[in-house]
């Protein structure tokens, strides 16, 4: 049995029960055609995507154009969705750290402002350039990390849209960062349910 893709048609070649080569085609309109030696049969299928999603596709690294591994498109969608969930959870975690830092900073500032002028004079307060560096470390760097994570999620969303578009394909080209994460997930079997 062999499978080939032509634009939006999946063509499967197999030897039929009569011993002759037969063809099974799936098109985008969810119409299945069986071509045998003597007849052509057309069948309308309600949900062709179940079959198509089970078809193995190759994952190709965008940077090196190497085929990394094969996985069914259904499993790839699940892996990408779980990777997206992990990255969204990471964004939430980073936002909580920023919020905690700013809350602590506001509390320290409120405490300092509540001091009498004489106590303010003797209070140990870090210089403004130290506060600026602290802000860079605790807020700016974390905001950059959030931006990178959002860009990564946008790439995942683009790949998911491409997969769920319904077009049949033998391989999909993904950015190197996503391929690296997928390899780690596949090796460790680490997936969210």
Total number of domains: 2
Query: What's the SSE pattern?
Result: EEEEEHEEHHHEH
Question: What is the overall silhouette?
Answer: rod-shaped
The end-to-end distance, rounded to whole angstroms, is 33 Å
Share of residues in strands:
15-25%
What structural class results from the helix and strand content? alpha+beta
What strand order characterises the main sheet? 1-2-3-4-5
Q: Compute the average pLDDT.
A: 75
Question: Helical region count?
Answer: 5
Low-confidence parts: 1-7, 37-54
**What's the helical proportion of residues?**
40-55%
Indicate the radius of gyration in whole angstroms.
28 Å
Largest sheet: 5 strands, antiparallel
> Count of DSSP E strands?
8
Can I get a quick summary?
By secondary structure, this protein is an alpha+beta fold.
């Amino acid at each position: 049995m062999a499978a080939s893709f032509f634009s939006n048609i999946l063509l499967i070649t197999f030897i039929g029960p009569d011993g002759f080569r037969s063809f099974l085609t799936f098109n985008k309109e969810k119409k299945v055609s069986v071509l045998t030696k003597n007849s052509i049969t057309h069948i309308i299928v309600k949900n062709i995507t179940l079959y198509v999603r089970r078809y193995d596709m190759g994952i190709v690294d965008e940077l090196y154009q190497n085929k990394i591994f094969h996985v069914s498109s259904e499993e790839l969608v699940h892996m990408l969705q779980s990777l997206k969930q992990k990255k969204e959870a990471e964004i939430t975690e980073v936002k909580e750290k920023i919020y905690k830092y700013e809350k602590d900073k506001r509390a320290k500032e409120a405490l300092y402002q509540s001091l009498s002028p004489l106590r303010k004079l003797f209070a140990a307060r870090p210089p403004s350039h130290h506060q600026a560096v602290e802000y860079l470390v605790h807020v700016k760097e974390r905001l950059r990390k959030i931006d990178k994570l959002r860009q990564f999620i946008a790439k995942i969303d683009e790949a998911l849209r491409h997969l769920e578009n319904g077009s049949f394909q033998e391989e999909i080209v993904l950015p190197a960062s996503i391929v690296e994460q997928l390899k780690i997930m596949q090796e460790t079997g680490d997936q969210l349910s």
